[in-house]
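Reopening this ticket.

The earlier resolution said the output was attached, but the attachment link was broken on my side. Pasting everything inline this time so it's all in one place.
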Amino acid sequence: MKKMIYGVDLGWASQLESMGYRWLNESGKETDILEASKELGANAVRLRIFVNPPREAFWQKQEDETCMLGFCDAAHVVEMAERIKKSGMKLMVGFHYSDHFADPEHQDIPEEWLDDSDPQLEKRIHEHTKEVMRLLAEHDAAPDWVQVGNEINNGILWPRGSLKEAPGQLVRFLNAGYDAVKEVCPDSQVITHLASVLNDDLCVPFLENFFAEKGKTDILGFSYYPYWEKFESDKDVLSAKLKEYTRKYHKPVMIAEVGGLDHDEEGTYKIVSDCIGAMRDQDGQEECGIFYWEPEVTAAILPDAYPLGAAKLAGEKTLRYTKALQVYRDC
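Inline output:
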């Protein structure tokens, strides 16, 4: 029987708590967000770390789009990580190497790093990663998994670490992060995280270059979002693709992000169930992981109305998980 990691990304939770939000358990009683997650079967939490995020923890992504970032500076991440470890849950930390969200369309160099040379940027990545890892370790919150970069199909620190413009430098940047993790917490497993797991055009060029340039990683992590990419979730298709990556690149795999519409509880339940089934199908993996991004919210409370949470309002500034997350306990 495989050991299943049922994860929840709670990067917004501490900021929401500061705004007065609270969560209810299945009985309708107020409870800590970690306890509410554990009640439904979650056993791990994912957090993200930005370099120098804005103090107000909001990002003007576009002229008409404001994103809530969560409290994702080092001090707040360490504080939340301590809570997670004390609750008995496992921990993943994802380094974005930006002052705000990094994804396939945004990999912005932190403002403080803008004038650095490539060797200086490698040093920045190493020092930033090592310092956060050191803080976590000192607070008995060493991560079980660490993402070096977030959805990095097209590279990081654009244009200096662009896959298209600087493929060799990109891997040197990533290896600087890997080495820093291992220097502080050698038992932490490093994840290389890509978006669009089923899209060969978006994943294979990165992976071919990464391994040709001697990229270092322990696990290949992927995002799976049928809603954004407009396809029907299919467990067998996902399972076959994950097996293909493992056979080709000789690394275990993980679903580092998944989500479905917050108001479509049944549909989202199926998407997550498909991921769990696909992970259980993987050969030779004793431990299989899946992380929901981010289940503690609903679109109604976010400035950009992000629709793929797994919670609903149960009163003023009061939230409770939908049926979708019960799939962790049911499976």
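Reporter confirms the inline version is readable. The domain at 3-330 is CATH 3.20.20.80 (TIM Barrel). DSSP finds ten helices and 16 strands in the chain.
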